[in-house]
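Subject: design request, 143 residues
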């Protein structure tokens, strides 16, 4: 079962992130967070929303969001006022990985609370497996 508002939220977050990344710097939304926290938090929330929206597809959603961090950063080449940085993409990728871990843990707890699968592994086991998969993906990206 999907969380009812997570699909629109995930897609709206993705659209907002693309807008904030590609738009001219003068139009970019401003906040009071440090830039690295801002970048990581955006991808954390977006990936978490996608994992919750597509609970049975977390294994494909997670690498897409991590790869999307690099792809969206590369879109800055389209804007004259922006400059893409590998370090910025890495911060976004880490935020995406952490968001996926939280989304997977949320889905596991929700599944257990609603009694969806009696044979489901514990939320801790699912989170541990997800974290190992995410770390493997990040290590391959860094090579």
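Subject: RE: design request

Done. Sequence follows.
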């Amino acid at each position: 079962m999907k969380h009812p508002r997570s699909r629109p939220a995930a897609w709206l977050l993705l659209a907002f992130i693309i807008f904030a990344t590609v738009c001219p710097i003068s139009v970019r939304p401003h906040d009071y967070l440090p830039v690295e926290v801002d970048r990581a938090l955006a991808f954390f929330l977006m990936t978490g929303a996608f994992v919750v929206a597509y609970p049975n597809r977390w294994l494909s959603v997670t690498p897409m969001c991590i790869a999307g961090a690099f792809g969206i950063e590369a879109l800055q080449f389209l804007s004259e006022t922006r400059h893409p940085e590998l370090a910025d993409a890495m911060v976004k990728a880490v935020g995406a990985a952490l968001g996926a871990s939280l989304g997977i843990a949320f889905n596991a707890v929700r599944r257990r609370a609603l009694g969806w699968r009696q044979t489901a592994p514990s939320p801790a086991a699912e989170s541990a497996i997800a974290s190992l998969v995410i770390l493997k993906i990040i290590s391959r990206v860094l090579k």
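The two ends are 36 Å apart (CA to CA).
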